[in-house]
Amino acid sequence: MNGISMQVFTYGKKFRSVYISIFVTVMFVVCGWLTTTLTNTFSYALSPDPFVQMVIQIYAGIAVNFGMTCNIFIFYTINHEYRIAIKNLFGWIRQTRQLEMSTSTVQPISSGMNTKGSRDRRKSSRMSTTTTGSVANLEQRKMAWID
Predict the structure, then answer these.
(1) CA atoms within 13 A on the CB side of 20
(2) Binning pLDDT at 50, 70 and 90, where does residue 128 land?
(3) Which residue stretches does the UniProt record annotate as biased composition, category Polar residues (predicted)?
(4) Would the pTM of this model clear 0.90, i.e. be above it?
(5) N or C: which end of the chain has fewer CB within 10 A?
């Protein structure tokens, strides 16, 4: 095959719903702008009165606003991931998961040519303390980093 060859990737149902929701929202926005543009263009032919033309053009802008406000409803209806994100945004889903601090050990990187030796070991022992997630331990860790 000469020229550019295109390869089509299928990512499954999740990406398909994303593409469908984007396509539908783009169509709503394009139809809104098309309706407004055509109405504004034909308003000059419909009435010779400038006031009536202005009123027609003002009301034609409703189509653009309608097309743009439909996005959230389309995303909510079509895509499950957007639905969860929108519910989280408005606080409709209670977040029962609490932030848990993980325990980890922090050790300094040494190249063997460090002359501070004991000071680095003392500092690394302060930084390598494990925490249970309480605020007091978090404050102690912050102070250890500041020292």
Answers:
(1) 13
(2) very low
(3) 104-114
(4) no
(5) N
